[in-house]
Design goal:
Length: 312
Amino acid sequence: MISLDLVKQHATKLLKFYKVARENPASGLAMSYDYMRQIASYYYDGNKMSDDYKKLADFIYIIENDFLSQKYIIDFHHSFNTKQKPDCNNVLDYIVWCGRKAIMPRASKSKEVCQDLANWQYGDLCFEASKKIWAVCNELGVRCYVVKIVPGFDENTEISHQYKHHFFVVVQYDSRQFIVDITYAQFFEERFNQLDRLGIPLIDVPEIGCYMKMLPNGPEIAYKLFTDGYFEITEKSLKTYFDSFTLSYRNALYYEEGGILLPYSIEQYMNFINDRDSQLKHEKIYCLGRQSRPLKNPNISPMDLLMKNANI
């Protein structure tokens, strides 16, 4: 059992890093992340992390919330005019506009007619948005279906992850298919997308945004969702979209044990979302969600760990 004096030493060190972050947030955070990986083994009894470590790990959230912004890590600005409804013959733009108008009272604090979507907050609005888009499609006679994704792509197992689910809509129009996801930006806030979270036990894993920025065509697909609200489904775009969720559900133990970065095909993802297979059936449950124990090698950087078996 770790001594109270050592816990106090660790807490004092983190307070020093907080003071560094006041002057240089990036430096203070980097020190804090690295330190939490380094001291984790002191708090692990071979079965679980101690409550003392959980309290220290929560300090990471304090620094992030105090010194990182709610801005999105992919820069975008897109005007939404509440009075200019697109013509319903322009189906995709019309259903996106209706969806955004439906969530606006909760997403935006502004009452202005013309708003910048970059100022909206999209958390916990995916179901409401998808339900509205589905309803509008049905009114227009456009085929669509709502898709629900859960951590590990497995409805039957609860994984300790900060998000319980995400909803989006697949729209079939003009002999093509599109993903409509007007709340995808919720996964791109700066404070939740620090790759250096990877490898620290008990804290939330990095979110979709930091991974989407690394994936081929990832930033372009994300930008299109932030602005247009949809993208056309191709084998490449669909795999990138699903890969972003797969990556965000994992912790560092997966990579430490030699897991391949992007092992899944489009066919496998189709089985995932249709409940015929899941990420959890291919990856150990302790490799998903919040990390439950320390890394064997806390000195390896998160990027090096991630790239050990990269196949991008």
